[in-house]
Amino acid sequence: MTEGRAVRILLVRPSHWSPDGHANFDAVEAACAARPPRTGRDDVVLLPELVGGRLSRPDYLARLRALAAGTGSTVVGGSHYDETGAATVNRGAVVDPAGTLLAEYGKRHPYGVEHGAGVRPGSAGDGFELGGRRLHVLICADLWYSADLVRRRAAPIDVLLVPAFSVTQWPAPDPARLLWRHMSVARAYEFMMYVAVSDWHHEAAYDGQRCAGVTGVADPCPSVPGDYFTAGPQAPLWVRDLDFDRLDAFRADRTRRGFTHDRPP
């Protein structure tokens, strides 16, 4: 990510989820084509959890590479149910426009019905770098267990990327949305990083449960005082600029005032 300019995160919010990952990727490609933004390799398209449904690993990676080439951006590919090995794992990958695999990651805490379906815990991975900035991916519920993982990183994370499918048992989405916003802001402020969440539209459903629709970005140093979380619009694609110069200045100020975390040697 180039120093000195705002970097774009493109958060995709499809309106309907299908176990057929091809159908989901078709919807993502249509959303990106309908509003072609200015993008480059160091900009990030963030897809929601399970956008790949039950695609095979080769088919999932092929769709990611096609999307990255088509948008000219690095794609954080949400996830899919990978059944390559002996157990099913909810996992995803990051690819750049040239098709290079930059990172892989898995869901450490399968949630709800995933337990009954035999989904096993995966590895969160090591994150990746773009233009000297450090990015890390945590799938959905893993955000709620992320403090120790983030604290153990030898270097601070600049952007925490969260592909989500925020199914909720509440009859309305508001309570879950509020919890997600509080958690995102807490992580962003404590660890001095951006937290970007890409979720499905609240009308989407998984196993009969509706999604809360929590797409948004937590900003630890907003230009508007108190505006720590910005919720994405109901549109299928939302573009958000991240200002790393302001983030660096915020970190320097907090360090001067003694708000720092011990890092592992």
Q: Shape, please?
A: globular
User: Helicity, in percent?
Assistant: 25-40%
Specify the biggest β-sheet.
8 strands, mixed
State Rg. 17 Å
Structural class estimated from helices and strands: alpha/beta
Q: Hey, roughly how much beta strand do the residues contain?
A: 15-25%
Q: What's the SSE pattern?
A: EHEHEEEEHEEEHEHEEEEEEH
Mean pLDDT metric? 92
Protein model, in words:
It is a single chain. The protein has 265 residues and is an alpha/beta fold. Strands 1, 2, 3, 4, 5, 6, 7 and 16 form an eight-stranded mixed sheet that branches. β4 and β5 form a beta hairpin. α1 packs parallel to α2. The protein is globular. The two termini are 26 Å apart. The model has no long low-confidence stretch (mean pLDDT 92).
Q: How are the elements arranged and paired?
A:
Layout: E1 7-12, H1 21-34, E2 44-46, H2 57-71, E3 74-76, E4 80-82, E5 88-95, E6 101-106, H3 113-116, E7 119-120, E8 128-130, E9 133-137, H4 147-152, E10 159-163, H5 174-191, E11 194-198, E12 205-206, E13 209-210, E14 216-218, E15 229-231, E16 237-242, H6 244-256
Parallel strand pairs: 1-2, 2-3, 5-7, 9-10, 10-11
Antiparallel strand pairs: 1-16, 3-5, 4-5, 5-6, 8-9, 11-14, 12-13, 14-15
Helix pairs in contact: 1-2
What characteristics describe this protein?
single chain; alpha/beta; 8-stranded mixed sheet; globular
Write a concise synopsis of the structure shown.
The protein is an alpha/beta fold and 265 residues long.
